[in-house]
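Below: protein 1.
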Amino acid sequence: MDTRASAPKIRSRTLLLHAPLINFLRNQLYRRDRVQEMRKALTMLVTGAVLVANDVMPVPARADNGGLAAGIVGGLAVGTLLGAAAAPRPYYGPPPVYAEPAPAYVPVRCYWTNGEPVWDGWRGMWYRPRIQVCD
């Protein structure tokens, strides 16, 4: 006799009922515009956190030993990093490929026929040589 407990049928029916909802939410999560919206929201959140942190802990501004220049350079560096992280990533598709079309093959029509009469001095007579004509 099997002593293992089997999963109740209600549970599997519940999963089957929720599968379309789970797939819908998964598709909504990975949409490209949602990702860009989330990136913008995260950028605004980080920017706001930096501004609030700056206001919460006030420090007197002093330019001892080049501290002002270091602050400006550091601020530009941090701004560059945040700007690069928030910039949209454009998608560049593959370059167009030029494929030379296959040559249109037209079979050459050739046939043999008799040409213009020619005097044959060796045999002492006129004759018509066979010639090949190709169109």
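Below: protein 2.
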Amino acid sequence: MGVYNPKQEERLTRLKEALPLSSVGLKPSDEYDIVMIDIVWVGELAAHLIDLTPYFNEEEIKEHQPRTINNNTTVDGKLVAIPWFDDFGLLYYRKDLLNAHGFGPPDTWEQLEEMAAKIQQTQRDKGHRDFIGFAWQGAAYEGLTCNALEWIASRGGYDPGTNHISDLQIVVEALDRARVWSQGSDAKGSGRISLGVVDDKEEESLSRFNSGDAAFLRMWSSAFARLKQAKVPFDVAPLPSAKDHKRVGMVGGWQLAVPKYSRHPYVAVEFIRYLTSPEVQSWRALKSTFLPTIDRVANEPEVQKQLSSLYKVRSNPQLTMITRPSSRLGLNYDEASECFRRVVHRALYADSKQQVQQEVSNMAQDPHCQKFLSQHQ
């Protein structure tokens, strides 16, 4: 039996080769019996996945959180995947360094910038020349789409109900702020707290933080266990927001599915039943801090204790969870996201705010990028 667990940098490449999504006349591959898929892939892959409804009884399906079943695994009334674990974007911070400066976790982006700059300068004065204030995912891939939508939404420019960007001027402000983080506002590099992150994906960001080379890190909740294994003391908090705006976190998560071309669909289904069972979800929560998708597992006292830091963040009344428009866009999501993150990446390299403004104006004219935008713009 083949089980496919794609690396982040590969994204859909291998699956597109195995399940021809856009190529006509190519024979689908039967190489994989089970695929592990990101929530934003479900709409694009749904036509190539078997409907699992006949294989799972109503009680099994109802055990999973309704929002996960309805939003992440069901397409046109068909259950095309089973939830494996939840994920969301949040802020990791070096509690020892913040304590040394008398700081608490930041509520606003302005506070994060001030804290990051001061801690960065102190560490560099001590000879830690590679230290940066704030690590995040700046490479031109799906992770940058997540980061950028969090920046925009935390300033009020993204509608979490319709999953549309609602204000292009807020996009300009958010991307220009990130540009300053990565390269500074002047020749002296004033405000530069994220030197070098424009080429970083998750692994590079984790490496910076694990190595003690960053004060703050934007990362997924699923990285919590890996960071706990490091010697760097840290804690977690919701991502900051602009003043007087809600704080946000991007929803992630992974599901398991069976391609229609599997040679062993019944065995594959049984293996998925096992992997997504309450017993395995409980074990994975306790051993690796993966957030369960089954409520009774999430409410187990031992799981509550093990995941208390993550649950505290997720239950923050000032936090709004946002999703990417993958369900709304379906097969069009991948090209729309690619267009959006190319614009964001170019903005990070812009020489001025005026150039960022031009990039956003160009985005508004691109038919692929327009799928991310409100029709009222």
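The two ends are 49 Å apart (CA to CA).
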